[in-house]
Write a structure and sequence with these properties.
By secondary structure, this protein is an alpha/beta fold. The chain has helices spanning 2-11, 32-46, 62-72, 131-142, 161-167, and strands at 13-15, 19-21, 53-57, 76-79, 91-98, 103-110, 119-127, 146-156, 172-182, 185-189. The chain has one domain (2-189): Rossmann fold. α2 (32-46) crosses α3 (62-72). The radius of gyration is 16 Å and the shape is globular. The protein binds guanosine-5',3'-tetraphosphate. It catalyses: XMP + diphosphate = xanthine + 5-phospho-alpha-D-ribose 1-diphosphate.
Length: 193
C-alpha cells in the first residue's frame, strides 16, 4: 500500500537494530484518514470471504481493526491483555511471549463473542515474531471458529512471524513489508496489498 509506505518513509523512525517507531500515525497518535484507507484496503480484499468478525489485540491493533470491521460491516473484537474485573466467566485464553518485550502475557477473549459459525479476519499493527497472532489463532480455534486470514499493517519481514503463521497453514497479507533497515532508512520488499 503505497500511501502507507510513503508515510513510514516520511514519519517512521528507525530505532536501534530492528524497531520502527510509528507513534505519529499508528501506535500512539492515530491518523484516521490513513486508518480509513487501511480498513478499506483490507475490506476490499476480503469482501467476498464471508468474514463475520475482525479480531485484534490491544492496544495498537485496535485502530486498523476497527476501520476494517467498519468497512466490512461486522463487529471488531480486541483481545485483552489484563484480566478485567467484569470478565468473570467463559474466558478463552492463550499465553503470548513477546521477544521484543521479553515478557509472557495472558491474552483473553470472552467466549460469548466467538462461535463455531464465525469466519475471522485477524488484523494487527505489527508482525514481528508472530506470537501475538499465534495466540489469537489459538483462542479463535478454541471457540471452533475459522481463521480466514491474518492482515498486517507493517510486517518486519526479517523476523520470522510470517514463516511461523504460514507454516501453521494461515494466509498472511501485509500492507507494508520491511525487508531491512539500512543507514536509518527503511527498505521495503513487495507488499501483498
Ligand atoms: P510478535 O507478536 O509478532 O511476536 O511481536 P513481538 O512480541 O516481538 O512484539 C511485541 C509488541 O511490540 C507488540 O505490541 C508489537 O506490535 C510491538 N512491536 C514489534 N515490533 C515493533 C516495531 O518495530 N515497532 C513498534 N512500534 N512496535 C513493535 P504490543 O505488545 O501488542 O503492544 P501495544 O500494541 O499495546 O503497543
Amino acid at each position: 500500500m503505497q500511501l502507507l509506505e510513503e508515510r513510514i518513509q516520511t514519519a517512521g523512525q528507525v530505532l536501534g537494530e530492528n524497531i520502527l517507531k510509528v507513534d505519529s500515525f499508528l501506535t500512539h497518535q492515530v491518523d484516521t484518514n490513513l486508518m480509513k484507507e487501511i480498513g478499506q484496503t483490507f475490506a476490499q480484499t476480503f469482501k467476498e470471504a464471508g468474514i463475520t468478525k475482525v479480531v485484534t489485540i490491544e492496544a495498537s491493533g485496535i485502530a486498523p481493526a476497527l476501520y476494517t470491521a467498519e468497512a466490512l460491516e461486522v463487529p471488531m473484537i480486541f483481545a485483552k491483555k489484563s484480566k478485567n474485573i467484569t470478565m468473570t466467566e467463559g474466558i478463552l485464553t492463550a499465553q503470548v511471549y513477546s521477544f521484543t518485550k521479553q515478557v509472557t502475557s495472558q491474552v483473553s477473549i470472552a467466549e460469548k463473542f466467538l462461535s463455531s459459525d464465525d469466519k475471522i479476519l485477524i488484523v494487527d499493527d505489527f508482525l514481528a515474531n508472530g506470537q501475538a497472532a499465534k495466540g489469537l489463532i489459538e483462542i479463535i480455534e478454541q471457540a471452533g471458529a475459522k481463521v480466514e486470514a491474518v492482515g498486517i499493517v507493517i510486517e518486519k519481514s526479517f523476523q520470522d512471524g510470517r514463516q511461523v503463521l504460514e507454516e501453521a497453514g494461515h494466509q498472511v497479507l501485509s500492507l507494508a513489508r520491511i525487508d531491512r533497515f539500512q543507514d536509518g532508512q527503511v527498505v521495503f520488499r513487495q507488499a501483498d496489498l
